[in-house]
Amino acid sequence: MLGVVRKKMLGQSLLKIRPAVSVLRSYSSSAKHMTVRDALNSALDEEMSADQKVFLMGEEVGEYQGAYKISKGLLEKYGPERVLDTPITEAGFAGIAVGAAYHGLKPVVEFMTFNFSMQAIDHIINSAAKSNYMSAGQMSVPIVFRGPNGAAAGVGAQHSQCYAAWYASCPGLKVLTPYSSEDARGLLKAAIRDPDPVVFLENELLYGESFSVSDEVLDSSFCLPIGKAKIERVGRDVTITAFSKMVGHALKAAEILEKDGIDAEVINLRSIRPLDRSTINASVRKTNRLITAEEGFPQHGVGAEICASVVEESFAYLDAPVERIAGADVPMPYAANLERLAVPQVEDIVRAAKRACYRSVPLAAAA
Amino acid sequence: MGRMGFSPKHACLTDEKDPNRQKITNLTSCLLVSCQLNLHCEVRPPFSSKFPLPFFPSLPIGTKATKMSTAFSAANFSTQSFPLNHTSTTSHDSPLVFAKPTSQFLRSTRKLRLSSSSKLNLNRRSGTVVAVSDVVKQKKSKSTPTLLITKEEGLELYEDMVLGRAFEDMCAQMYYRGKMFGFVHLYNGQEAVSTGFIKLLKQQDSVVSTYRDHVHALSKGVPARAVMSELFGKTTGCCRGQGGSMHMFSREHNLLGGFAFIGEGIPVATGAAFTSKYKREVLKEADCDHVTLAFFGDGTCNNGQFFECLNMAALWKLPIVFVVENNLWAIGMSHLRSTSDPQIYKKGPAFGMPGIHVDGMDVLKVREVAKEAIGRARRGEGPTLVECETYRFRGHSLADPDELRDPAEKAHYAARDPITALKKYLTENNLASDAELKAIDKKIDEVVEDAVEFADESPVPPRSQLLENVFADPKGFGIGPDGRYRCEDPKFTEGTAHV
């Protein structure tokens, strides 16, 4: 718990200072810090230098240094044969990457946002995810589709959807959602090394956030296992599951709840498919209450799946109905105040936790 | 319905009654519409010495400066009646009167005419369009004709086409007996395209196809037994019964599918071609010259992915040949009703690659064009778009009642059956005797029967196969309630698919 508090304070002070140098390793404090952006950049860099078959393909990844500067410096280092600027043809280049993967190359396809992946979804699902099965193991597809997912700030309905639930429902895909820099580095490396298609959902608002990283994380062979969730904060009273940006919100909510005497356990899912049901259920069996937090649309969302899983496996342990916190069931509005209402806030998680602990009058979900 | 009009006998097939249907009277059998300047000059070197006349661009003299526009005008031109099968060697229509190669080229002020004897200009000096059939006809008139194929090649082509036909006919039988199920799309009539192209490939070259992929698989070398078992859904199939009719894959033979979605295979093929280039440039396998062929239909040529890939393939000069099997029908949608400009080969130059139209019912013509296109790709000169005019004798799939197509059209193409054509060529040129060809027919019948028996006797997949191969790394099934990865549990595959 103390670790969380410390991380938060450092994070805040770093945000104020925010050096322009791309890799933050120059602090003299004992803990090193790294933004998610640098974490992703360094992971890509290391994997590309370790294996010549890895190449990056997407719009603006080369000369523009990446639409969100994730691929900064890679074109200079690896050349245009390995960092390919594509025309605006998501279906085309996603399919080209799949074809290359059939022949053993390891493409990393960047979608400028995952909203644009809808133009390529045929290839992600039909020619990437299903191929190993249809060919009975002959064509494995070691491809990574990555890019920012979910709401940014004021970008409107067509740029704000969260695709975790859509991709996670498809067999044959692995879906990863990093939160911190450690997650970003470890999971991206794992994804690139993985022989299966991986959908790697980042978050634009997290790119600039800085987290402390240990030396182990900075090592070039660091890798996180796919399918294991991380318990960010151990607690006793209520379990809050979250992924990506919502982990940050959940941690803040946990601190607020702390003051009200509710000790929340926060689980960073890290992997939506495969979902770490074992960790979630073990946690629920300990705390007996569950809140699921996500940014996407509520119906058929990740929270729905977690709720079903818990009801199937740990029904007897539940002391309260499972609360789902999700984005509003509306296309994302533009106006800033409406956008705030459409995306879950820390207060929503706090209220839900209190409801689960029977500390407040039940309200219909305000968001 | 277009395409006709090159013989007076068939003039009735052009639709005089419906003026709205565009009369595509004729696409010349080999027309290269090229926007590459150098092709005008360098037409000779790449061609084999068998052909004194190059059969690429038919651009009139003086077109070098305005290559694009004349490429189009030449294309317009090429819609003049140009008989496709007029030679006795490769066609089966009654001999027609037409264009002698020495006539003058006239510009695009000429109107389209249907069964006219108007001549397509073949201006030899600046590079001409010559139908292969034309050259062959010329060759025939000499005293010692040089043939397009040797005896061994001829027999190989014949055997491959007969295998395709016999196999597909057997599929139809098996389907109606209930041994095969789901969607089955047969390739009868189009064998010349598959054989003409795929028999020129090496094992490391890749082929990507659509749902009409049985014959592509067979031509590429996948054993008939494996394909038949796959269709029956048995575990001995090439994809262990998990793919089915529409999803044939073979790592060994580099058959990259089998895709049900129209246009889905084209980017995958482009990616395979990209890999060949990547291996050469980045992985430093200097002799990697693998070529990829993408087969798809006329309906696909209206799909966005097709254009996206034409662009990227030409942009990055990928070693790929886009082969359009234009059989004029997309299920029940006629090509002419769905396409603003039905001449598909013209779409090539719009993206910076040559576009060729060839008679897809004639395996020798297809083979000649394929040699050049594949050669181009292997040499690193980039992609080619080849439109093969072909026809499927059966419906779109075995579930299609095939009511919309004109019986006269079907009869017309049935008369141009590629297998009969090749047989005629082989016997008339004394490359093979009737007895030898009959022996091949018999042998293929036995192969197909054997394949059916093998498939019948093969076991269905065991229950445990349901959960196999979803991931290359089965840890993707995640962690079970006991905290260990599910795939490590030996009883994992005994359950249902619900995890």
From TrEMBL, chain A:
SUPFAM superfamilies in the record, alphabetically?
Thiamin diphosphate-binding fold (THDP-binding) (SSF52518), TK C-terminal domain-like (SSF52922)
EC numbers on record: 1.2.4.1
- Ribonucleoprotein found in the keyword field: no
Query: Which InterPro entries does UniProt cross-reference here?
Result: PDHB_mito-type, THDP-binding, Transketo_C/PFOR_II, Transketolase-like_Pyr-bd, Transketolase_C
Q: Which stretches make up the Transketolase-like pyrimidine-binding domain?
A: 34-209
**Name this polypeptide is given:** Pyruvate dehydrogenase E1 component subunit beta
Function, as annotated: The pyruvate dehydrogenase complex catalyzes the overall conversion of pyruvate to acetyl-CoA and CO2.
Supply the SMART domains for this chain: Transket_pyr (SM00861)
Q: Which reaction does it catalyse?
A: N(6)-[(R)-lipoyl]-L-lysyl-[protein] + pyruvate + H(+) = N(6)-[(R)-S(8)-acetyldihydrolipoyl]-L-lysyl-[protein] + CO2
Identify the enzyme class.
Answer: oxidoreductase
Query: What keywords appear on the UniProt entry?
Result: Oxidoreductase, Pyruvate, Thiamine pyrophosphate
Specify one Pfam family.
Transket_pyr
Look up the record and name the cofactor or cofactors this protein needs.
thiamine diphosphate
Organism name = Hibiscus sabdariffa
TrEMBL record, chain B:
Keyword check for Oxidoreductase: yes
Q: Which InterPro entries match?
A: DH_E1, PDH_E1_Alpha_Subunit, Pyrv_DH_E1_asu_subgrp-y, THDP-binding
Question: What keywords does the record list, in alphabetical order?
Answer: Oxidoreductase, Pyruvate, Thiamine pyrophosphate
Give cofactor(s), names only: thiamine diphosphate
Any one Pfam family match given in the protein's UniProt record, by short name: E1_dh
Q: Which reaction does it catalyse?
A: N(6)-[(R)-lipoyl]-L-lysyl-[protein] + pyruvate + H(+) = N(6)-[(R)-S(8)-acetyldihydrolipoyl]-L-lysyl-[protein] + CO2
Q: What class of enzyme is it?
A: oxidoreductase
Keyword Oxidoreductase in record: yes
- Domain of life of the organism in this record? Eukaryota
Any idea where the Dehydrogenase E1 component domain is?
160-461
The EC number of this protein is 1.2.4.1
Gene3D superfamilies of this UniProt entry? Answer: 3.40.50.970
Query: Which region is the signal sequence?
Result: none
User: Mind telling me which NCBIfam families this protein's record contains?
Assistant: PDH_E1_alph_y
Q: Whom does it interact with, and what assembly results?
A: Tetramer of 2 alpha and 2 beta subunits.
Function per UniProt: The pyruvate dehydrogenase complex catalyzes the overall conversion of pyruvate to acetyl-CoA and CO(2). It contains multiple copies of three enzymatic components: pyruvate dehydrogenase (E1), dihydrolipoamide acetyltransferase (E2) and lipoamide dehydrogenase (E3).
Name of the featured protein: Pyruvate dehydrogenase E1 component subunit alpha
